[in-house]
Amino acid sequence: MKSFTPAWRAHATALWALAYGGLGAAWALGLPGYPWGASDPDPDGALSLLAGTTPRFGWWIAAFALLTAVTAEALTRRGDRRAPLLLAWPIAAILVLVIPDSRLMMGVAYTPLLLVAPVFGWSLGGATFADAWPWPVLNQLVCVLGGLLLAAAALAYGRDRGRARWFTPERGRTAVYVAAAVPLVYCVTRWAWALGIPLGVGPEFLAEGEDGLWLAGAYLATFGALGGVLTLGLTQRWGEVFPRWIPGLRGRRVPPLLAVIPAGFVSIIVTVAGLSYVRWTVAGRFSLEEWGAWLPECFWPVWGAALATATVSYHLRRRDGTRVRTGEPAA
Predict the structure, then answer these.
(1) Domain ranges within the chain, ordered by starting residue
(2) In angstroms, rounded to a whole number, what is the distance separating the alpha carbons of residues 32 and 88?
(3) pLDDT for 52-63, tens place per residue?
(4) Confidence (pTM)
């Protein structure tokens, strides 16, 4: 008999939801550490959609968590039913894309920079890991974890019923090329600023980063461009078998999760950050004259969606044991 969906994903999601729901209830009852509102170091509430809430909102968190737990457990039951998926995917989207904000990407992007800054003597304005990862941002990681667990359970539930057929190798290849190309628009602007070229901004704006800020931006842009190159591995043989020039690993099979985990996580943080820029653009916070400071980021949701599609397609292809492009059984 064909095995049913790996139930541990759904059970893990339910346990996560019950634990987080209990935390929400505790916040409502007065436990310190509520991650939004007055305790969130978001000065004008421009980042988080929950900035205006108070700890009493914890009761709503508890109710939402209970719904999440019930939905997750429904994904463990046999039967050809769509109802669990109709709830699971929206809940997962809220946890992964709505609750987090752009600070999640800032923390990920600046962590490597904070690691190498002491080596090169960069001060970074006195920024520390505590600045990059305060509790409200770490809480976003917790929410993303719950959303990913639920999405994994929903994907397996749908696949066992033949509903994951949208993620074909052909769509995966197209998505890879889109995901590799979109960040280059951002990279070009940041590289230009580092070279003193006011691409998409005025001279006054460019002068604000002469203290090394644009060099840091160029570093992050290069990091993004490198990620774009690595994205190509989702449809190339070196994404399945380590190349010959890698000592100790040459010719060995690339563990699928080695690509799926980082690519999936990056797809989330760039989408979240991009949605923030889209929201700020709609609110009129940017000027058209300085399009270079915000327009490239508005394309990040496209980047994230393409990368997520490419990642899921890669995961399903590796799981099915097919080679790149040929459809032959993997060795």
Answers:
(1) 7-159, 169-320
(2) 30
(3) 899 999 999 999
(4) 0.82
